[in-house]
Every structure is written in structure tokens, then in C-alpha cells.
Specification:
Length: 347
């Protein structure tokens, strides 16, 4: 397996992830991203398709399955999240799942055709004993021959290294929205806290999975701000989940106006253009999305999905529905992640 090596000199938190001068690649201003949003849709899709075909096999989609290994009772106040203890959403607080249960779910995901198993925990930040329990899960899931990803909240000194030693491939930690809109959605951790964790992940040699959520009542400029932040990370993330808000009753965002589906498609296309080497994941929100919109997202460069009938606490399309969709669209499961060396899978 090949993993990005950590940089030789240890940069500051800012240089690690946001300093533009340390990278040779193109820098995206918010206005340049806005200009992409303003293109006629067909022109935008043409550009995105071309970027996609330069870097990826057409029609191949990476399949990740997701499991909540520790559900509910989270002290954070993320306004979209059904797992925050501050909102009455009907999600019960549970203990962390036993290792055997996690392994059983991972085996089922592999048998269904997933190449990556992602484990999520409703923590602000893992405590040392919790981190060790997750490291055990990572080792066991790797031993099944699956790629691994975890999302556990903020990481502290040495924690990313422990996960790397356990064989973790990806750490998911999202910026969620623009720096300007962020404070409207979350107050208990800052944008800089998130950038700090992303820097720790990258410095430990773990691949970064970082994206956001659209449809939270933000403006187009906020969506452009999120994309510019992601694309200007140094280096940009290898994996970029674009989530459509699942508006959950009881959360502060339960009643935000619905986003135009074509604005979601545009966001996928722009993620593809601005981060041409990243795997762009059409992430939460597919259950409520019609198949034509999903087809446009794949055309626009989405090349990863969550595969399996649940996300963390919310529903996702049934396996059979996704198999039928892939068949209708002529899509197939990718042979693992281009950023890793993995075995082929089929759907
Ligand atoms: N507690 C950890 C954290 O926040 O870093 C990990 C789990 S958290 C649920 C992972 C991500 O799921 C969030 O950053 C957010 O982007 C996404 N998410 C959570 N609730 C969502 C919702 N209702 N709709 C869309 N995406 C959501
Ligand atoms: C990500 O960006 N989306 C996934 C994964 N990373 C962990 C989570 C989606 C959660 C949707 C709401 C739920 O199921 O509770
Ligand atoms: Fe907690 Fe993560 Fe949900 Fe925020 S998104 S409330 S940190 S589980």
C-alpha cells in the first residue's frame, strides 16, 4: 500500500493546510469559484467531464460503507446533526459497539461489494482509551482486506500517529461550509480547530477525506467559499465528500429551504474542476435525491458513494436500488482507490 509520506520539515498549523505559498498548484479565489457557478450548466458540465476523464477511469465509482460505532450524545452543537445531545432528535445515546459487531458489519459490507469501510463516532474528540478501541477496529477491518476510514472528531497530540500505526488509510474531518457561514452552524469548535486536525492527519501520513454540506441555508458565495478552502488546502484532500443536508426534525436546520438540485450538481462539478485528482463523493442525501440528479452528479465527476442502507443514523438507498441504478447508468465499482493500492471489487 502506498501512503503519502509526511513532509520532511514540520510546518506550522497554518502552513500545513492553508498556506498557499507552500504549494505549486493553482490557487482558487472565491470569485474564481463563483465564476464557475455562474457558467451555463452545460459548459460547466463539459469542463467537469473533461477534468474527470483526464484523471479517472470513466464510469468507475468507489464504494464506501459507513457504520456508526458510537452513536448519539455528542456534546457539540453542529446545527445539522441528529447526534448532538443538545437537540431532541430521537437519537439515543449508545456505548461504543463491540469489536466483533464492527467486524461483522465490515465483512457484510465487503461481501456486498464495498472496498472501504468508514467508522464514525459522535465524539468531540476521542479519549485515549476510545482511540485505542478504534485502533483495534482499524486493524481488524484492514485484516479483512478493506480500506479503512474513521471520523472521530478533533485529534490531539499523537492520536493520528496511533491510527496510522494501526493501518488507517483515511481520516474524515469536514470543513462543512465557508469560514463566513460556519459560525451560523457550529459554535463549539472553530474553523481553525478543524484545520489543525486536518494538519495532524496529513502530517501522520494518513490520507485526508475532507468536504462539506450544502443546502444548510448558505448562499452560493458560501458554497464557493467552502470549495475554495478545500481546493487551497496544501495539498488538496484526496477524498472530498459533498453532503446534501439531510434536514432532521429537532435540529436547528430542520426547516431550511430546499436547495435546487441543479445547484447541488454544480457544486459536484466545481469540486471536480478545482480538485481534479480528488475522489469526489456524492455523500449524504442520496435517499431523497432522484436518480436523474444522481446521474448528473456522476456525469459531473462524482466517483464515490456511500453504499449500504444506512449512513450513521439516517437512511441511504438500499443495495438493490443502487445496483439497479448502476446498471441503468452503465456504472461499475472501481477497483479501489487510485490513491491507494487495493484489490478490484465488483458491484
Ligand atoms: N463527530 C465527528 C465529527 O463531527 O467530526 C464525526 C461524525 S460527523 C456526523 C461527520 C460528518 O457528517 C459531519 O462533519 C457532517 O459533514 C456530516 N453530517 C452530519 N449530519 C449530517 C446531516 N444531517 N446531513 C448531511 N451531512 C451530515
Ligand atoms: C461525511 O462527509 N458524510 C458521512 C461521513 N462523512 C461520516 C456522514 C453523513 C451523516 C448523515 C447523517 C446521519 O446519518 O446521521
Ligand atoms: Fe458531534 Fe460530529 Fe454530530 Fe458535530 S457532527 S454534533 S461533532 S457527531
Amino acid at each position: 500500500m502506498s501512503i503519502c509520506p509526511p513532509p520532511s520539515a514540520k510546518p506550522t498549523a497554518e502552513q500545513r493546510v492553508i498556506a498557499p505559498s507552500s504549494r505549486a498548484g493553482h490557487l482558487w479565489s472565491v470569485q474564481a469559484v463563483m465564476d464557475l457557478y455562474d457558467l451555463p450548466l452545460a459548459d460547466l458540465l463539459d469542463q467537469a467531464r473533461s477534468a474527470h476523464q483526464q484523471h479517472f477511469q470513466a464510469n468507475a465509482v468507489q464504494l464506501s460503507s459507513l457504520l456508526s460505532i458510537k452513536t448519539g450524545g455528542c456534546p457539540e452543537d453542529c446545527g445539522y446533526c441528529p447526534q448532538s445531545a443538545r437537540f431532541d432528535t430521537g437519537v439515543a445515546t449508545e456505548a461504543m459497539l463491540p469489536l466483533a459487531t464492527v467486524v461483522q458489519a465490515a465483512q457484510a459490507a465487503k461481501d456486498a461489494g464495498a472496498s472501504r469501510f468508514c467508522m464514525g463516532a459522535a465524539w468531540r474528540s476521542p479519549k485515549p482509551h476510545q482511540l485505542e478501541a478504534v485502533a483495534d477496529c482499524v486493524r481488524a477491518v484492514k485484516a479483512l482486506g478493506l480500506e479503512t476510514c474513521v471520523t472521530l472528531g478533533m485529534l490531539r497530540d499523537g492520536q493520528a500517529e496511533r491510527l496510522r500505526e494501526a493501518g488507517l488509510d483515511y481520516y474524515n474531518h469536514n470543513l462543512d461550509t465557508s469560514p463566513e457561514y460556519y459560525g451560523e452552524v457550529i459554535t463549539t469548535r472553530t474553523y481553525d480547530d478543524r484545520l489543525d486536525t486536518l494538519g495532524r492527519v496529513r502530517d501522520a501520513g494518513i490520507h485526508v477525506c475532507c468536504g462539506g454540506i450544502v443546502g444548510m441555508g448558505e448562499t452560493r458565495r458560501d458554497r464557493a467559499g467552502l470549495i475554495a478552502q478545500l481546493a487551497n488546502l496544501a495539498p488538496p484532500p484526496d477524498s472530498v465528500p459533498i453532503n446534501h443536508l439531510i434536514a432532521v426534525p429537532g435540529t436547528p436546520l430542520a426547516d431550511v429551504p430546499t436547495l435546487d438540485p441543479l445547484e447541488f450538481v454544480r457544486t459536484i462539478a466545481i469540486a471536480r474542476i478545482t480538485m481534479p485528482r480528488a475522489v469526489v463523493r456524492l455523500s449524504a442525501g442520496r435517499e431523497a435525491m432522484d436518480e436523474a440528479t444522481q446521474a448528473l452528479c456522476f456525469y459531473a465527476g462524482a466517483n464515490s458513494i456511500f453504499y449500504g442502507d444506512t449512513l450513521l443514523t439516517r437512511g441511504n438507498p438500499q443495495l438493490e436500488a443502487d445496483r439497479a441504478l448502476f446498471s441503468r447508468l452503465g456504472l461499475h465499482a472501481s477497483a479501489g482507490d487510485p490513491h491507494l493500492a487495493s484489490a478490484p471489487t465488483t458491484i
